[in-house]
Amino acid sequence: MNQLTGACIIGQSGGPTAVINASAQGVIQTALQQGCITRVLGAAHGIKGVLDDKLYDMGQEDPAELELLKYTPSSALGSCRYKLADPDADDTDYKRILEIFQKYNVRYFFYNGGNDSMDTCNKISKYMQKSGYECRIMGVPKTIDNDLNGTDHCPGFASAAKYIATSCAEVWQDAHVYDTGMVTVVEIMGRHAGWLAGSAALASLTGCGPDLVYLPEVDFDMDRFIADVKAVYEKTGKCMVAVSEGIHYADGRFVSEAETSATDGFGHAQLGGLAVMLAEVVKKNTGAKVRGIELSLLQRCASHAASKTDVEEAWQAGSAAVEAAVSGVTDKMVAFQCTREGGYQCKTSLEPLDIVANFEKKVPREWINAAGNGVEQPFLDYVLPLIQGEPESPKENSLPRFAHLKKVLTTSM
Amino acid sequence: MNQLTGACIIGQSGGPTAVINASAQGVIQTALQQGCITRVLGAAHGIKGVLDDKLYDMGQEDPAELELLKYTPSSALGSCRYKLADPDADDTDYKRILEIFQKYNVRYFFYNGGNDSMDTCNKISKYMQKSGYECRIMGVPKTIDNDLNGTDHCPGFASAAKYIATSCAEVWQDAHVYDTGMVTVVEIMGRHAGWLAGSAALASLTGCGPDLVYLPEVDFDMDRFIADVKAVYEKTGKCMVAVSEGIHYADGRFVSEAETSATDGFGHAQLGGLAVMLAEVVKKNTGAKVRGIELSLLQRCASHAASKTDVEEAWQAGSAAVEAAVSGVTDKMVAFQCTREGGYQCKTSLEPLDIVANFEKKVPREWINAAGNGVEQPFLDYVLPLIQGEPESPKENSLPRFAHLKKVLTTSM
């Protein structure tokens, strides 16, 4: 083993999740225990914190508060959506990153995020290799969208899926209370992959699930959609629809953008949202009372309804990244390899950053029904083990007790 | 004590809540134990079920499923929004109700709902008194709006308040993740009273609450709103606003309707919603990135985030109604009388249906701050005890296990 002594940086990037802080906690707690890691630094707002020399000394945090990170949604260190340039075209940022790494003798870099973040991580890794600066660089996966390549699933996805399924089951109850007709359209995140929208179908396991589910993996057809809804509505007097924000026509145009600009041409998309727009289309075509519900940010920050499995796996992903790096590994992302037959089992593996970055994993077509308006059993079998267990989230006054970090900026080595 | 033997009917009416079924359960379980109550009938869709002679025999339900009603949101028997006519103008419905009461020898009638439902209950009570048909008629309170007169608070309110506070705390975390500007507007139910919108301020107890809260008790002024948001945004780069759907201008026009019709004149109100509209106003005036979030139905059916206190009190309200009726009481609504000093205590009382019906209890002006954009400590002291405790909601596969009722229609005595 090649012992490498120095500081480490943990950064969080991209859209937050209910459990991204559990991964940060896994990195921080494990790193603080390593003799070769002299200091654990948290980057303020991901790679921007490195570029701006804004790094928190995580060793100065109260361990009890760090422990609460497991139950605190969103990115506690701050996040960013910052795209690094191609280093061959412009290496300014890379030089700056190297400068900061040298300034603090950073020998371990952990980057916690989704597709774009793994791209950032990969670029930094390759640049450091090229420059000859020895630094072990590891990706820690995160995304509610569940679209990262090379891993069975992504931390953050399951908690969002569980919130979506639970909320859909509850809304179903609410939407079936009157003996008058009612069509409910629930809009769910996931611009290019339908993992989250499909998870709405888990609600059916409670006896109260959506009748129709539309994923971006299948081209959307408005006439077919109207016919689908009509068929259910005419039979039962109700219809509940779950729809991915990313549904698009065969020509690639997002339904949200295409329809709303066609309607009034002044940015209605931003105003109304897809659920409300589709609900209006249904109203026009059926006369039914309609309700459009957008789960919005709620679905990605609902730590109060998180999956314990997800929380624990998220922590494990962070911890495994540190352990691998300390043992000599670099240029990898921690991934999950799982088996479901004979009981769910999940192990971490290490995948090359190259194969992870910039590839979006979609729902297999055969997991979606032939009509393109629902998911098949293999989809449910895939998701169900991931949402199991209730985390013991600490409360004060029956409200969530989130971590309060001191965030002490470090100024020197 | 005047022993009265016969059947009872329980009906649910108005918008559902997370705990209205706990009240129904309180009625059903307590009624099933009374020797003088020969049969417990559930009205399908409230008073409409009585008029339509659609009554379920609750004695045929599996007791274990009845037990699950405590954790099942929305109205399990079905609800309605049916307004009875003034009996002096048209007594058709009343005659029909009397006919059904006679058909099944109904001597106890429990009606579970909010303002309109207490009006229904009151009218039926007075009609039965006038007609000389002996029937004990009791109101069981329910409304997330918390606007019923004569009671400290209403079952259903606290669970919605808790969901709103929890969600606002989580959204606050999410909205503070980037180092770029962001204004978030959260729209909360409550057409005429601001109890729910004000409860968003409970999130501040977690350190993550809205900066500004607007209740319908104070006339809304758009210029002042913009100035309020600007002041917070310019100071901190962020601003989170909680707003009641019922905010209105001094002339009484709802902001949602007034503004949206001014914008495009074709029913935008239905399309966009208030949160999104206000977010757009802020965007135009500050250039900030904005996000409008409507909590929609989610806030009234979120049994997964209910208050244990609320669940238990809701059950108690139903049970107390039966006990009072059996002991000879009629023409009353069960209410709560609470003390908070020296620890929260809640006792049931019985209030005349007349004083409850058709009066909306608002948030006292002195519980709202002088600027009209936040609530004062007495408001928080009032709500906080009500949201305490986590119910032990049963789960299957880590998803809610709701009650499955057989709903066996009864056809004869």
How would you describe what is shown here?
The structure is a homodimer of 413-residue chains. The first copy, chain A, is of the alpha/beta class and 413 residues long. Chain A is 37% helix and 18% strand. Chain A has 15 helices and 13 strands. A 7-stranded mixed β-sheet of chain A has the order 3-2-1-4-5-10-11, with helices on both faces. In chain A, strand 12 and strand 13 form a beta hairpin. In chain A, helix 1 runs parallel beside helix 13 and helix 8 packs across helix 11. The longest helix of chain A has 19 residues. The radius of gyration of chain A is 23 Å and the shape is elongated. Chains A and B meet through helix 6, helix 10, helix 11, strand 9 and helix 12 of A and helix 6, helix 10, helix 11, strand 9 and helix 12 of B.
The description of the largest β-sheet of chain A is: 7 strands, mixed
- Whole-number average pLDDT of chain A? 94
Strand order of the largest sheet of chain A: 3-2-1-4-5-10-11
Distance between the termini of chain A: 26 Å
SSE pattern of chain A, N- to C-terminal: EHEHEHHEHEHEHEHEHHHEHHEEHHEE
Alpha-beta content class of chain A: alpha/beta
Biggest chain pair contact, residues each? A-B, 70 and 70 residues
Beta-strand segment tally of chain A = 13
Q: Count the helices of chain A. How many?
A: 15
Oligomeric category:
homodimer
Fraction of residues in β-strands of chain A: 15-25%
Helix content of chain A: 25-40%
The residue ranges of chain A in which pLDDT falls below 50 over 5 or more consecutive positions are 261-271
